[in-house]
Amino acid sequence: MSEDKDKGGFYDTGWRPGGDVHRDEDGRPHDHPGVQEDVGLGARASRTLAMHELLVEKGIIGESEVDEAIEAVSKRVPSNGATLVAKAWSDPEFRTRLLEHPKETVVESGFVPEHNADIIVLENTAEVQHMVVCTLCSCYPTQLLGPPPDWYKSFSYRSRAVTEPRAVMSEFGLELGEETEVRVVDSNSELRFLVIPRRPEGTEGWSEEQLTTLVNRNSMIGVAAATEPGTE
User: Can you tell me the mean pLDDT for 194-223?
Assistant: First the structure.
């Protein structure tokens, strides 16, 4: 864990938050035209299909095992973590349990951490802002937040999050006053973090379902604020 010591200026590394770019096998960005029935499989897809058919034929995997695995992965979405945050905002007892016994509470809520990793839940306040990074690779609570975005895995983010976290947050639209302490926490293969962002003002009396719409993925990493009412 490291604290923000350098509140210095921005320098351009080529990295920008937001746009996850789709790329072809040569690394060039491209648009998705959609699946076309008259387009054959590429070399990699053909090899993959042949390997799958061989593994099924040999009885190593079941006919539907791959489909089940794909379905399980597809259920890893940011709305999972958002439901926990919204409940913590509206239920003080649940919030306390989530902060004090995070892994047990996450599992009880139906989300099993990948690789049985431990979970720490941190709460952002006016006094302290937590921001998550994995300085070695891209360790990340996919069960709660879905697949990590490209920027989270980039070397630029992994280095700048430690050296100039305020500049990074500024690029995501989050400006913090000098009175707010910034704490950068480092994920690893055995430990993942979930951040409870500050609850937006003007949401008193909102239901958990309504509050969930304000909890965005970046706010649960700590690089951005929760979505303001009326802008979601």
Answer: 97
